[in-house]
Amino acid sequence: MLRDITIGQHFPGNSLVHRFDPRLKLVLTILYIVLLFAASNPLGLALSLIFLAVMYAVAKIPFKLILKSLKPIFPIIVFTAVLNLFFVSGEGDPVFKLGFLTVYAEGIRYAVLMAVRVMALIAGTSLLTYTTSPIVLTDAIENLLRPLAKIHFPVHELAMMMTIALRFIPTLIEETEKIMNAQKARGAMLDSGTFTQRIKALVPILIPLFISAFRRADELAMAMECRCYHGGEGRTRLKQLKFTSEDFRCLVVITVALVVIACTRLFVPGLA
Question: Per residue in 199-217, pLDDT tens?
Fold first, then answer.
């Protein structure tokens, strides 16, 4: 299960999405997330999914990888859908009733829409990390937040912390799996027992994991200090961020697609 978590992983490539300006990718990803929750009808969500599928096809990211990234959060998706299923009331006769639990047709539609929204949200944000290296993502965040530097906001430090945290997610997942296998080899019962027993069994995993995380952080900080690393003003970059004509053409096409999705909220009856 832990190997299925692909958040923070980067898959190198030379596709159009990989070459797209990271600043625009970051802004368009945020805009896509907003549109996901603004789309209040099946047509808007369907267009959002088609747009996302096209982006994955252009980026040449395998479809199996999308399903693999959604597998760990499936319980969260189910929990969110169940909440909408039982707590959204509607007009007319209920579809199902058991004691104090009542299910309306409106609740079923909301549950399906919310589940689709969460899956599209995870898949959309994962596409950003799949096609953008941590170093380039750091430069993009720093570049976008540069106006805040005028009020002495630590722009570079914030961007660096965000990307380092994202970069070390796969490393910590791998470390967790090693610790769990070591505990199982010593006879620890991690997959059986009551809920309380499973929680107690996590303590021997969390303590070594935190120690390992602090050790890695200290080693990284020491390595950066030994190389006299400093960010912000005066720092040079191997690859400069440049807005090309190819980026402009892609921006026009993607903007038109997102505007069409946004218009479905205005001209098509919705549920929310």
Answer: 777 788 888 888 888 888 8
Write the CB contacts of 74 (distance below 8 Å, at least 6 apart in sequence): none
d(CA 19, CA 2): 30
The predicted-structure confidence for 102-151, as pLDDT tens digits, reads as follows 777 777 888 888 888 888 888 888 888 888 887 788 788 888 888 887 88
Domains of the chain: which residue ranges? 2-132+242-267, 171-238
* Selection from 118, 55, 132 nearest residue 84 by Cα: 118
Rounded Cα distance between 266 and 45, Å, is 14
Cα(102)–Cα(107) distance, rounded to whole angstroms? Answer: 9
Contact (Cβ atoms closer than 8 angstroms) between residue 271 and residue 41: yes
First to last CA, the chain: 34
How many Å apart are CA 181 and CA 184, to the nearest integer? 5
